[in-house]
Amino acid sequence: MESTFEHVYFPLTTVSSGEGKEVNIDIYCYCIQFVNICLLGNPTSKTKEWFLVDAGLPHSADNIIRLAEDHFGSMTKPQGILLTHGHFDHVGAIGELLQHWDVPVYAHELEIPYLTGKANYPKGDSTVNGGLISELSPLFPNHGINLENHVHSLPADGSIPGLPEWQWIHTPGHTPGHISLFRARDRSLLAGDAFVTVKQESLYNVILQTKEIKGPPKYFTTDWEAAEASVRKLQALQPVLAVTGHGTPIREEELTNQLNYLVENFERVAVPEEGRFVHER
Ligand SMILES: [Zn+2]
Ligand SMILES: [Zn+2]
């Protein structure tokens, strides 16, 4: 299944693939083909402590390690890896990364079964329409991975060990244990796939990286009621900056306006007209 995926996606080197963006002194966002990872930490600080958020596509480990060393110095190592969720495009390189960096991985307790080989995600749903990526999505790997004792449940109080300024927010719907990360001090949000800033179902939009807030990628989202509640929860935080799992970072007025629009029109904008999981609403 993995080789099919690579075959399908090898030519998909988007214009922003391989591009890094320092969205803040301590938030560095990097696009691997069509999915983002983040380095959280200030490279000018004395300790240079940092966390990796999400782990990209299969075979991108060398790329991620090189990026981290360019940013934080050679032989650098994160304090841990945070996973917004366990879909293949967010955990693809984690096995190789853990061989290189023996660090703890944190995820929501409801996501742990998919990260310890006990559960698989449903296959991508090609019936949601919306474009070529949806049509190809049944080919995407949907199996859980097994990180064994590397992976830990995040503390129930919303804190993140080693990252005192940040809290995790449960934003289920796209997956049961999906989380977003929020820093109240400057209202920075890492939203994972709770919402994204590109119409992820459409190859055309993904290549052009047309910026437009959308609901979670449709072909993988299983609970639309929860997904809507999660977007409302994030809107209520009044974020000033949002970095999403797909698409480019978005700020201030543009973010506020588009997020409000998404919340007010969620049913029409985000929920597919048909699909295997739509009846569950
Ligand atoms: Zn996802
Ligand atoms: Zn994703």
Automatic annotation (TrEMBL):
It catalyses: 3',5'-cyclic UMP + H2O = UMP + H(+); 3',5'-cyclic CMP + H2O = CMP + H(+). Transmembrane segments: none annotated. Residues 34-246 form the Metallo-beta-lactamase domain. SMART domains: Lactamase_B. Pfam families: Lactamase_B. SUPFAM superfamilies: Metallo-hydrolase/oxidoreductase (SSF56281). Counteracts the endogenous Pycsar antiviral defense system. Phosphodiesterase that enables metal-dependent hydrolysis of host cyclic nucleotide Pycsar defense signals such as cCMP and cUMP. This is MBL fold metallo-hydrolase. It comes from Paenibacillus marchantiophytorum. The lineage of its organism: Bacteria, Bacillati, Bacillota, Bacilli, Bacillales.
